[in-house]
Design a protein that fits this description.
This protein is of the alpha+beta class. The chain has helices at residues 2-38, 55-107, 114-146, 158-175, 195-212, 243-248, 268-278, 309-312, and strands at residues 154-157, 180-184, 190-193, 217-224, 229-237, 282-288, 291-299.
Length: 314
C-alpha cells in the first residue's frame, strides 16, 4: 500500500513539474509574440522550453508569419511603386498640357502671321494628342490589371494586322527619315487571339521603337511550320540603354530617365507583354551590342491552306 502511495506521489510530482514547464513555455511563447508585435523584426517563435509537443504549433505559426510578412513587403513595394508612378505620370501629363497652354496664350498675340498661327495650332493639337494617348494607355492598363478587359479568342491573321499597323506609322518613319528592313511572310499567319489586342501590341512595340530607337530598324514575322509557331522580331539601334535596362523594359511604369520621354507612361511594352501572355504567347527583349530586339512567339496553324475564306482577304 505504501509503495502505491509513493508511486502516485511521484507521478503527481512529475505531472506538476510537467504542467509548470508547459505554463512557463506558454508564457515564454506569449512573451515572444508580444515582443515581435511591438517591434519591427524578422524573428520567429522559438521553442525555448524544448517541449516537442509544441513544435507543430510553433512551425505552423512561423510559416503563417513568414507568408504574412512576404505579403506585407509586396504590398509596401506596390504602394511605393504606385506613389512613384503617380508622380511620374502626373508630370508626364502636365508637360504636354503646359506646353499646349503656353502656345494657346501665344495665339492671342494679334501680330502673329497666319503661318505662325497654323504652326502653333498644330503644336497644340499634337500636345493634346500626346495627353490623350497617355490617358488611354493608363486607362487600358488599369482595366487589364483588374480583369475588366476581356480578350476574344478567334482566328486572326496577324500578318495582316501587322501590315496595317506599319502603314499607320509609315508617315512617322518618313518624317524622321527612318528606314526599315521588313521581312514578312507573304502567306496568312493564323493564330488564336484577340484582333484588337494584336493591334495594340504591334502599335506599342513599333511606337516604342519609333520614339526611342536610333535607326537600323528591322522587322520580321515568320511562320515555323515545323514547330507550329510564328515569330515576330522588331530590332533597332539603341546606344542609350544597358543590358539591365533591356531586362526591365516590360516592367510596368519602367521609368529609366534616358529611355523614357514625356510622351509615354512606360506602360506600352508592359501592356504588350501582358496581352501576349494572356493569349498564351511569349514576349522577350535582348540587347546584343547596341541592337535592341523585342521578340514575340505565338502558336499558329500549320495548315495554312485551311484558312477560312473570311480571313484570306482581311
Amino acid at each position: 500500500m505504501n509503495i502505491i502511495i509513493v508511486i502516485l506521489s511521484v507521478v503527481c510530482v512529475l505531472l506538476l513539474v510537467w504542467l509548470i514547464r508547459i505554463r512557463i513555455a506558454v508564457r515564454d511563447l506569449a512573451g515572444q509574440n508580444q515582443e515581435m508585435s511591438a517591434t519591427d523584426t524578422n524573428r520567429l517563435l522559438r521553442n525555448s522550453a524544448g517541449i516537442k509537443m509544441f513544435d507543430p504549433l510553433i512551425n505552423s505559426f512561423n510559416e503563417n508569419l513568414k507568408e504574412q510578412r512576404e505579403k506585407t513587403l509586396k504590398a509596401e513595394k506596390m504602394n511605393r511603386e504606385i506613389r512613384e508612378s503617380l508622380t511620374e505620370i502626373s508630370h508626364d501629363l502636365r508637360t504636354p498640357l503646359t506646353a499646349a497652354s503656353g502656345y494657346t496664350g501665344m495665339l492671342k498675340n494679334m501680330k502673329l502671321t497666319e503661318e505662325e498661327k497654323n504652326r502653333y495650332i498644330e503644336v497644340i493639337e499634337e500636345r493634346f494628342e500626346t495627353s490623350r494617348n497617355l490617358v488611354d494607355q493608363l486607362f487600358f492598363y488599369t482595366r487589364m490589371e483588374s480583369g475588366a478587359a476581356e480578350l476574344q479568342s478567334e482566328d486572326v491573321d496577324i500578318r495582316r494586322i501587322l501590315t496595317d499597323v506599319l502603314a499607320l506609322y509609315y508617315p512617322d518613319f518618313e518624317k524622321k527619315k527612318f528606314d526599315m528592313d521588313i521581312d514578312i511572310d507573304e502567306r496568312p499567319i493564323i493564330v488564336k487571339g484577340d484582333r484588337d489586342a494584336f493591334k495594340r501590341i504591334f502599335s506599342n512595340i513599333v511606337l516604342n521603337g519609333l520614339k526611342h530607337g536610333e535607326g537600323d530598324f528591322k522587322l520580321s514575322l515568320k511562320a515555323d511550320d515545323v514547330h507550329g509557331v510564328c515569330r515576330f522580331t522588331f530590332s533597332n539601334l539603341a546606344t542609350n540603354i544597358t543590358q539591365e535596362d533591356a531586362e526591365k523594359l516590360f516592367d510596368r511604369y519602367f521609368t529609366k530617365d534616358h529611355v523614357r520621354s514625356s510622351s509615354n507612361t512606360g506602360l506600352g511594352l508592359a501592356i504588350a507583354k501582358n496581352l501576349i501572355e494572356k493569349m498564351h504567347g511569349t514576349c522577350s527583349a535582348k540587347l546584343v551590342g547596341n541592337v535592341l530586339s523585342i521578340g514575340i512567339e505565338m502558336t499558329h496553324y500549320e495548315e495554312v491552306l485551311a484558312v477560312p475564306p473570311s480571313l484570306r482577304d482581311h
